[in-house]
Amino acid sequence: MRAHQFVAVTGVVLLAVASAVADQQQIASGTGQQDSVVISTGADGICDTTAASGDIQFAAVGSGSPNRTEIRCGTNKLVDTVAAGDDVQLIAFGAACKNTSTAVIDTGENGIADTTAVSDDTQVVAVGTAAANQSCVITGADGVAQTAAPAGDDVQQLAAGAAEINTAVILCGPNLIAETTANNVDAGDDVQLVAVNDPCTANQVVVDSGADGIATTRAEGPDLRIGVAKAARIKIPAGQPSASKRLTFKITNTEFGAAAPATRLYEITTTSGSCGGGVVSQVDADATTPGLQATANIALGGTMKASLVATMKLQNVTTVAGNNPYRCSFDVSVVAIDTIPDVDDGANEEGNTTTVDLEVSDRNDY
Description:
This protein has 366 residues and is mainly β. The chain is built from no helices and 22 strands. Among the domains are: 6-21 and 223-362, Sandwich (Immunoglobulin-like), CATH 2.60.40; 23-32 and 163-220, no CATH class. The chain has strands at 6-7, 24-25, 37-40, 56-57, 69-72, 88-89, 103-106, 122-123, 135-138, 155-156, 168-171, 191-192, 205-208, 224-226, 232-236, 242-253, 263-271, 280-284, 295-299, 303-313, 326-336, 353-362. It is flat. Residues 1-21 have low confidence and may be disordered.
């Protein structure tokens, strides 16, 4: 969840409502786990196998699995080693480490260690070698293995034609109540691990993909989306102390499931972001109804239009030329009343929030 300080929205109605559905989707229905290991590199750490069509070549043939931890911080908790070759310096030379397990250098794209640990830094992968038994080929878009014949000392981890079994399809969400029924999209063998309406712990698996590894379940619950905001330009005229612009946002109710209500009540929240306080006002959850609406109902499968006003004052903006505007940003979220303070997460919680970028020119400055 985002940890922002929210600007107060006037007139918000506080309602006593039943606990909302908030399970989290991990695998799209009709697919298996999309990054399951099909072929691993074997003891020498070098990938010898070419991925078949549909699978992903995670490590290049002749290379090790990329970006594996090569050197960790030592007991002095300072980085004493500088990366060589294509190895990647994860923490700057001389900087402090959190603890002795902190990775400070990885093997880079070719997966082969080029760097010798200095002082008390710890060598995890020997110079000139690659980490053993790592990913060489992984499943692609359908989550089903296609590569059948490992080369060299590579090892077949997932048989061609199979998906990884019993992978997480649905996780428990912020309300800590399991709300999704297994196999609610198609007939399948997904497994209900936590009964609907039973308590669950954060990120506990509620439904897994069963013995065939293919998900046939979609998370149920509040699933509101806000359209991506376009950059907004505000010009403060010469002689004027401020300028404002009304911004509109498309809200969509994409909720799924037999238990989905006909409508869902929501509000719009904002953050101060880098623009600072006092920029956002006149937040309206339903811009098509006269007056400012603190909350609004959106029909299942329907759309609504929300709006707000962004105001920039000359004392908060310095611009020296028209082609070099001041820039700042803030976030706008659609939040189901049932799930406050959490945005809903029936499928993709990031879809509940969009970032507004403002470009502001102050004609009093030039």
